[in-house]
Amino acid sequence: MIESPWREMSGDEALITFRFFVLPLFLLDAERFVREHITCMYPLLPAMQGVDHELIGKAMDELAEICHDQRVLSERFLWMEVLLHRTDTIDALEKVEIQRRLSMYEFLLESNPRIKRIRLEAKAEGKAEGERKGEVKGEVKAMRQSLIDVVEIRFPALIELATQRAKEMTNLEELRQLMRQATAAPDEATVRRILDSKAS
């Protein structure tokens, strides 16, 4: 466990000294915070001792009752969910029950600006990745056809073998290399040997 103070050093000299209080959540009793209605600690409950779905349910109900700002409430439930996924001190069945309870407030998370932003970014990344894959797939298809065309023009007897090998290949750079070799090959035997070496 990290200890206070934390020092940022430059050689032997401390540039910054930061003194802090260590709060080992995994040693704290969650029930005490709920019993005493210390609501600011409720988002951290999943990291504490003695957590079960009934205790979390009480805490969530209390938060929902006192917190009138839906954005703030969704942030608190989001922290609960994050810590729930990270902790290994809660029984697996209890985790499932707590997650089920949290899912009742999913509509709040859906409207949370941070979640919206993350989802939009993920969607944009997915779209960009899909476009990149589509482009690569298109390039692979075009390179396969180019390879087949070169072999057909230079060595028509090998068209069937070239078509077979081209269809088996999915790596764009390997296809480019094979295309260059087929273009520069001095004779049919060389191209046949190259194509046979690519057999899957």
Secondary structure layout plus pairing:
Layout: E1 6-10, E2 13-18, H1 30-35, H2 53-66, H3 70-86, H4 92-103, H5 106-111, H6 113-154, H7 159-168, H8 172-184, H9 188-197
Antiparallel strand pairs: 1-2
Helix pairs in contact: 2-4, 3-4, 6-7, 6-8
Helix proportion range = 55-70%
| SSE succession | EEHHHHHHHHH
Sheet/helix structural class: mainly alpha
The strands making up the biggest β-sheet line up spatially as 1-2
Total number of strands: 2
CA-based shape: elongated
Can you summarize the main beta sheet? 2 strands, antiparallel
| C-alpha Rg (nearest Å) | 31 Å
Observed structural traits:
mainly alpha, two-stranded antiparallel sheet, 65% helix, 200 residues, 2 strands
Structure description:
The protein has 200 residues and is mainly α. It has two domains: 25-111, no CATH class; 129-197, no CATH class. Helix content is 65%, strand content 6%. The protein has helices at residues 30-35, 53-66, 70-86, 92-103, 106-111, 113-154, 159-168, 172-184, 188-197; strands at residues 6-10, 13-18. Strands 1-2 form a two-stranded antiparallel ribbon. A hairpin with a 2-residue loop joins strand 1 and strand 2 (13-18). Helix 3 runs antiparallel to helix 4 and helix 6 (113-154) runs antiparallel to helix 7 (159-168). The protein is elongated. The mean pLDDT is 86.
